[in-house]
């Protein structure tokens, strides 16, 4: 799975200058965030794996131990693939699973920022992210993967080849989730939430016609947020021009000007980062 490298910028907000505790927390977060940015910016890790090597680290047991899909046809149900008259057998071939519950195709280096804003940097720790459970996964010394205690993690990053991803908690959106940082500003920030749902193979046949899919699938559900860091409010939007104009335009008139001046650019997360940067000027 390709890793999108976001343009990440952090500013220290001056709004809470009269609140020493808030100011201190913002300062600690800024310091930790900058350390994560420096870590993923350093060109010190090569993840150019051959196709045969991409699954060299076993994921055996993770789906069942860490994620329990409910009511999505992934249990012990046995589908009947015989023909309608129960006599003529129907040939059924189940294809390989499409998609993955994991964000990256392999475990990668990373940094984790804990409750006390201390940064955990251990070279023998490799990480991945489970999109179904929302768990940060840890593997060390080729042991079985474990789920990190999410309640004790404030920030973390995943280091890929020439870049990476940073995730953080955004309590005023949902304190139980990790959000990828598209852009972090002193006033407005843009975040992304990953979710994945399991859809089991559901092909049926009456002996003449086959219906449904002959493969299991992990379907990603992506949600984007424009967050007002000062008011601690947020709006959800889609990666579509109409939705972006509506949401971003509701907080700043510079949105329409920016959209017109960049109408030929690809509508991707780099575009979102640059537009959010405009809102912070």
Outline the structure in words.
This protein is an alpha+beta fold and 281 residues long. Helix content is 21%, strand content 28%. It has one domain (20-237). It has six helices and 13 strands. The strands form three sheets. The chain has an eight-stranded antiparallel β-sheet with strand order 2-1-6-7-8-9-12-13. Strands 3-4-5 form a three-stranded antiparallel β-sheet, with no helix packed on it. A two-stranded antiparallel sheet has the order 10-11.
- Counting DSSP E segments of at least 2 residues, the number of strands comes to 13
Run of helices and strands: HHEEEEEEEHEEEEEEHHH
The computed structural class is alpha+beta
CA-based gyration radius:
22 Å
Unreliable residue stretches: 1-17, 47-93
What fraction of residues sit in β-strands?
Answer: 25-35%
Largest sheet: 8 strands, antiparallel
Give a brief outline of the structure:
By secondary structure, the chain is of the alpha+beta class.
List the topology elements.
Elements: H1 20-41, H2 62-66, E1 110-114, E2 119-120, E3 125-130, E4 135-140, E5 146-147, E6 153-160, E7 163-170, H3 171-174, E8 175-183, E9 188-199, E10 204-205, E11 210-211, E12 217-228, E13 233-237, H4 241-249, H5 254-261, H6 269-279
Antiparallel strand pairs: 1-2, 1-6, 3-4, 4-5, 6-7, 7-8, 8-9, 9-12, 10-11, 12-13
Key features of this structure:
281 residues, disordered N terminus, 8-stranded antiparallel sheet, alpha+beta, 3-stranded antiparallel sheet, 28% strand
